[in-house]
Amino acid sequence: MTAVLQAEGLGKRYRRRWALTDCTLEVPAGRVVGLVGPNGAGKSTLLNLAVGLLRPTTGAIRVLGGTPAGDAGQLARVGYVAQDTPTYAAFSVADHLRLGARLNAGTWDQELAERRVSRLGLDPAQRAGRLSGGQRAQLALTLGVAKRPELLVLDEPVASLDPLARREFLQDLMEAVAEQELSVVLSSHVVSDVERACDYVVVLVDSRVQVAGDIDTLLTTHVRLTGPRRDAASLPADQHVVSARHTDRQSSFIVRTERPVLDPVWAVDSLTLEDLVLAYMAPEARPGAAPTPALEALR
User: Fold this and answer.
1) Mean pLDDT score of the chain, rounded to an integer?
2) CA 79 centroid distance within chain
3) Terminal-to-terminal C-alpha distance of the chain
4) Mean pLDDT, rounded, for 110-123
5) How far apart are CA 8 and CA 10, in angstroms?
6) Which UniProt keywords apply (predicted)?
7) Which residue of 94, 151, 184, 230 pairs with 124 in a disulfide if CB–CB is 3.0 to 4.6 A?
């Protein structure tokens, strides 16, 4: 299998409002994929469709080659931690593990769950309602990985955590990926989280994929050009403009190119992942605007 998630023309409508429209995406297997975009971009809707909590209004989606939540076997192959890292306040940590074992009888790894709880310093008798936000998130992650899924879907799992708890959660996630060879889709609007944990990124804006690819490859094929004011149309055909800024005398372009920029008029600078993501989130990088070829070249 080359893809764990495939969407084609995917859309979801709530009465008159479209939460996701015409989304086409292919997520490779064996990667930790960061799904990045602003609030309201459709990230949570896409992930809820992927785990079968929602049904598409238009288009199609397949996960691990099958219909999301199509049967018990398909459910067992996917782990999910929702945005609010849900736990039951009145249940103890041990109760949660017993619930996980009951709901995932065929795949549940009790030894793994108990080992994680012990390593995290969680008291099995402690009620979830008395745990910190970081501890609840870790408990939710434990339930997600102990079912031994092929794909783990995480929807903004650290959005409400303090910086230290975020770092600990993401470190634990990376260790779980290494131990279990998981495929992961992690949504976030915080680029630093994606940079820390992921090796592949998808930028989703207004329901549409703006760019997707291996992070290292994207960073080596995108540069910032700064020099005398110039129209984007004057750049070579192999330099696909993603975003452009101009002053009276100077132009700054972020371009995607497979070749070195040899024109001495330009100062050429490498990008951070945040630079790249923000460039594709800019209005001029959205569908219907000039830099469409940059997106098409990466699909």
Assistant:
1) 89
2) 15
3) 18
4) 94
5) 5
6) ATP-binding, Nucleotide-binding, Transport
7) 94
CB distance 74 to 68 below 8 Å:
yes
25: which residues sit within 8 A by CB, 6+ positions away?
A: 5, 6, 7, 10, 46, 202, 209, 212
Band of pLDDT at residue 226, cut at 50, 70 and 90? very high
Q: How far is C-alpha 17 from the chain's CA centre?
A: 24
Q: Are 69 and 75 in contact (CB under 8 A)?
A: yes
Binned at pLDDT 50, 70 and 90, residue 1 comes out as low
pLDDT number for residue 2: 77
d(CA 298, CA 13): 28
Residue ranges covered by each domain of the chain: 3-212, 221-298
Task: Yes or no: say if 270 and 219 are a contact pair by the CB < 8 Å rule.
Answer: yes
Integer Cα distance of 195 and 190 in angstroms: 9
231 token code pair = 């129209």
Fold classification of 3-212 is Rossmann fold (3.40.50)
Per the structure block, which two tokens stand in for 152? 């783990």
